Fold each of these.
Amino acid sequence: MTPASPRHSPRTAGAAARPRPKRGGSERDPGRGAAVVTLAQSVTDTLRQAIMEGQFQPNERLQEELLAERLEVSRTPIRAALHGLTAEGLVEYVPNRGYSVRRLDADRLIATFDIRAALEGLGARLAAERGMDEALQAQCRAALHRGDRIFAKGKLISADRDRFAEVNAVLHEAVLQTADNPMLNDMLRVCYNIPIFSDRNVLWRDFGWLRRSHDDHHRIFEAVCRREGARAELLMREHVHSVKLHMREQIEGAAPAGRA
Amino acid sequence: MTPASPRHSPRTAGAAARPRPKRGGSERDPGRGAAVVTLAQSVTDTLRQAIMEGQFQPNERLQEELLAERLEVSRTPIRAALHGLTAEGLVEYVPNRGYSVRRLDADRLIATFDIRAALEGLGARLAAERGMDEALQAQCRAALHRGDRIFAKGKLISADRDRFAEVNAVLHEAVLQTADNPMLNDMLRVCYNIPIFSDRNVLWRDFGWLRRSHDDHHRIFEAVCRREGARAELLMREHVHSVKLHMREQIEGAAPAGRA
DNA sequence: GATCGGTTCATTGTATACAAACATGCCGGA
DNA sequence: TCCGGCATGTTTGTATACAATGAACCGATC
């Protein structure tokens, strides 16, 4: 956990002498180089990842000075980052008392899926109406095929967790990209910003359920390709809804009946 | 446009000697006093209102020092406020070049309504499923009645603009409150954060259309009260969709074929 | 005449100093 | 024993100083 470091470092130069990547010259990093321009951005990325990976406890306080020391920057970019992460829903803020890692109780977590269903449903419909790019279609087909191979084995091995997550990500992002609605993207990102106990860590053991979920992927993709907007929307909504139900079962199965 | 002023003012005391409301004593402001605790918050509110009221031009740059002078605070709370408004979608940010008032082109504006339709539809369904509070139901009925009286005259006068906006706001907020999903609220707020040319300023002349829109309100309310979730969702979606269509007509009617 | 290079200026990004708010612990009183 | 008030320390909020970036301007060269 160390932020990239642009601009301004009148310090002891730091133990590990950070190499100042700055912004790439004109020739390096041709495609999506973008890199990080601002310390605040860099810190935001670092903290987001740390929180998503569970490096902080759920309700843990995030003290500015402490983080500043750990990341070897001043409080200023830390504050900016925390403010931003608050907007992203990862962090909570109480006016004169600072920031803490947000903890969604079970109900709020479940409620998230209602929003995802509505928004991803909309995304699927828009994608179907606009029509998906040939290149993207090819990517989707490849991803679907990779998914099929996971299930062809007839059982799951531990490496399949990441594989399925990847397939899932490719497909959903292809739909979103085709929908071409930046605001929709931003809002869904907030829904995804849920550390650990998100999809990836709970649901990947139930072979039968997972296979049905992948069947959904096939049908959604088909509907999008056929430009069947209403059908794509319905399928996507049902797809997400089934995740919600499955997750609720898992949660209620694991924790007796309280907030996790 | 002047922010409330808590804490810390080692300045010339300001021309108008701000009276330091601080946080209300224990007895004053009994109910929802909350007031503003932080300069940054206060500045955020001030700027949000100013932008929404059109006090800044669409694409206008928002220079930190300038605003700081105008609001008689330092750049620090200004920066925090701008950062926050960026998350709310009112302001745009480019890393080393600062903030500017966001301008939605016609397409993006229209696209907003797709999201509103999906989210408000969800809200209506959740409200129907949860059931609306008696007190809220009464408020809604009163609002519906106020709306009816607007149309009973058979024509619109200019004061009806604000009246209808108020009725509309009460009803939609009642639904959202009943839906009881904070994330849904936040996301819809982003959709509403569109200066001027939002509903209120364009559509309020067409008597027939407006009356149909208010009929929708009646039916949506009825569906929610009867706990008919699916119907409430469909009606709300159609309701918002009709706003989208009407707005598109208005825009295309007004501006020939460019970005407004 | 247009383009490239460097210089200057305006504006943003970061660090830091200081003031106010919250939290804690102590003490006295009921 | 329990409660309320005061002193203390810690942490946040704001102001400000300074560094670095981007834009504008200008002159020189092709």
Amino acid sequence: MRRSDRLADIIEIIKDGRLHLARDLADQLNVSLRTIYRDMDTLASSGVPVDGERGVGYMLREPVFLPPLSLSLTELEALHLGMAIVGQVADDELKTASGTLLSKVAETASNRRNAPKNWGFGIYPFVQGRLGFQHMPLIRQAIRERSKLRLDYTSLAGRHSQRVIWPLQTEYWGQVWTCTAWCEQRDAFRVFRIDRINSCHATGYRFVDTPGKMIEDYMTGLNLA
Amino acid sequence: MRRSDRLADIIEIIKDGRLHLARDLADQLNVSLRTIYRDMDTLASSGVPVDGERGVGYMLREPVFLPPLSLSLTELEALHLGMAIVGQVADDELKTASGTLLSKVAETASNRRNAPKNWGFGIYPFVQGRLGFQHMPLIRQAIRERSKLRLDYTSLAGRHSQRVIWPLQTEYWGQVWTCTAWCEQRDAFRVFRIDRINSCHATGYRFVDTPGKMIEDYMTGLNLA
DNA sequence: CCCCAACTGACAGAAGCTGTCAGTTGGATA
DNA sequence: TATCCAACTGACAGCTTCTGTCAGTTGGGG
């Protein structure tokens, strides 16, 4: 087995985010412990964000690593269109992310033959107004971490309420963003318009995926076209 | 210099899409011709789409290669949101591309710690109806290749006309797609609603970027908010 | 037919990789 | 405080791989 292939294998293995001992990697790849340490050194010097801690093991630092991808022109166009739209309809956090993502791709894809300066997509503001964007980063984080949120909400009918919700998913409807959640007060699924949220805070508690209270359960209860 | 680094360099060099002679690469990288041939073999066996033709040189086949990217969680979310929207508002070609792009990313990013099955975004159809999507792949191709198109068009006012246009850019307005082009008949920029295009064919002729007739010129003529 | 430049095979010397061994270090646990 | 763990480091010899040289072949274009 070529050394470079083994290095790729190591990345593949530790990419699961779990802890890995050099000992285990050595066994798995049929090389000596010393070789693993040398490989880790090589990887680190190539910019792979691998952390080794004495007495603990190896882990990949947060950023998710994508191996070399080969994208077709159309896929690149889809990417550009998607990021252009996200840059228009999403909150600042996602806008920034769409920009940095594009710049990472562009940096490496730009010096190809006939690289277009312009990707042939123009996106003009088609969602305007106060959309409650300020709450979206917190809500997204809560969805990721399964954190409960305390909402101060005013329904479309004008009714005011306070809820503790388990945020499951955000939806984009072309005009408004909503958040589907399990509501502890109503003990049922509820969909909240994000622009109607007055305030929104993490409670500090987590929730756990519970059958009957997961986004899949909500989806199956719907009959979409 | 490590061999694996040199292989990366070779990819970097030929990624410009131009023709490269093994001789030149050898000079540039300070190795012998034979070594370049061996490297090319290694690259090909690793799946890099490099084409060598006797008497001609080396070139990278179409698909654009992205080197390993490191994306933050938020960037991955932006990507998922963008592709979800593209999957709703674009034509079949782009829809498919958004799907394959996501699957390529998912395949490699999915087995990370706490990989979400669901990315917390729901996108519901917010653009419906007959939008002239069937013309969009052709238009996009024409923009890429700078091909003139012959249109059969019905304006919103109901006026029927035939045009030869230089397609420059497509725009998405949240409800409709348009194409901005230089119109040979009017000798001016025109914006066409794609859902009002009755038919659309390549003329077989190309146009060349001409000052005053490029998308940048059109953009500077606008005063966007 | 010739030219070009990609390709192939063989071989020996150089370079890099690997395992073994014998350590050290920093953090967590007892 | 001592002990354990597993990451780390340095040295060295043997092995593997890479590399340049040389002497060819092959396929396409003029």
